Amino acid sequence: MNSRLKLVMKSGKAILGYKATTKALRRGKAKMILIASNCPPLRKSEVEYLAMLAKTTVHHYSGDNTDLGTACGKFFNCSVLSILDGGDSDILASKE
């Protein structure tokens, strides 16, 4: 998953963060959502609900928010990530 995520960050389009992800879900732009394992339960359920309404795939990332931020090539934590465009990666087609 990490290698696919790196490819998305390089060639595709992704948004990091809870607020930006909820905005993308409301507008119907998000194609896939990744949620870190230690995301707060209320925030997680809200994102899952919005994704269900937008008919968007949700992937529960196995690592915590520090791992998710590092996998994106950032030096900060990220609990929710939204993929708008997969780019060269096959992350949207895969169901891991």
Q: How does this structure look, described?
A:
By secondary structure, this protein is an alpha+beta fold. It is built from 4 helices and 4 strands. It has a 4-stranded mixed sheet, with helices on both faces. Helix 3 (41-53) links the parallel strand 2 (32-35) and strand 3 (57-60). It is globular, with a radius of gyration of 12 Å. The chain starts with a helix and ends in an 11-residue tail after the last strand. The model has no long low-confidence stretch (mean pLDDT 95).
Work out the helicity level. Answer: 40-55%
Q: Pairing-aware structural class of the strands and helices?
A: alpha+beta
* Number of DSSP strand runs: 4
Largest sheet: 4 strands, mixed
Q: How do the helices and strands follow one another from N- to C-terminus?
A: HEHEHEHE
Cα gyration radius (Å): 12 Å
| Proportion of beta-strand residues | 15-25%
**Cross-sheet strand order for the largest sheet:** 1-4-2-3
Topology:
Elements: H1 2-11, E1 13-16, H2 18-27, E2 32-35, H3 41-53, E3 57-60, H4 65-71, E4 80-85
Parallel strand pairs: 2-3
Antiparallel strand pairs: 1-4, 2-4
Helix pairs in contact: 2-3
In short:
With 96 residues, the protein is α+β, with helices and mostly antiparallel strands.
What key attributes describe this structure?
alpha+beta; 4 helices; about 100 residues; 4-stranded mixed β-sheet; about 40% helix
